[in-house]
Design goal:
With about 120 residues, this protein is an alpha+beta fold. The protein contains three helices and three strands. About 50% of the residues lie in helices and about 15% in strands. The N and C termini lie far apart (about 70 Å).
Length: about 120
């Protein structure tokens, strides 16, 4: 019993944990990339994509986007967060984009949202 060695050394366990963490990180990145492509495909059509409003905070843009989507207006937000370095903040303005054919309905919904604020 005294001469039994553990099946894995602490170094091996650390390497296994790091490897599994890396695999999980890669999987999350792939899932996020697929979701981004899915959102961009939702906006594609014969109608041009236009920026309907610019925001200073991602959270404000998300609220407006969700309002439009809840009312059957396909929308998405576009911003540069320096490749994820900035988290959910943005280095510039956040644009809410829609199909041009939905512009009238979207503007009306956003006006109603501004009245609530």
């Amino acid at each position: 019993m005294k001469n039994m060695k553990p099946a894995f050394s602490s170094t091996n366990l650390i390497l296994i944990i790091l490897t599994l963490s890396f695999i999980v990180l890669v999987a999350i990145t792939i899932i996020a990339a697929k979701e981004t492509l899915k959102q961009k495909r939702n906006l594609k059509s014969s109608s041009p994509i236009v920026c309907i409003k610019k925001f200073g905070m991602v959270q404000e843009a998300e609220i407006a986007k969700n309002l439009l989507i809840a009312n059957q207006v396909k929308a998405d937000i576009f911003y540069d967060n320096l490749g994820g370095y900035m988290g959910r903040s943005s280095s510039g303005s956040i644009e809410l984009k829609i199909k041009e054919e939905d512009k009238k309905a979207a503007l009306q919904l956003l006006k109603e949202l501004e009245r609530i604020d």
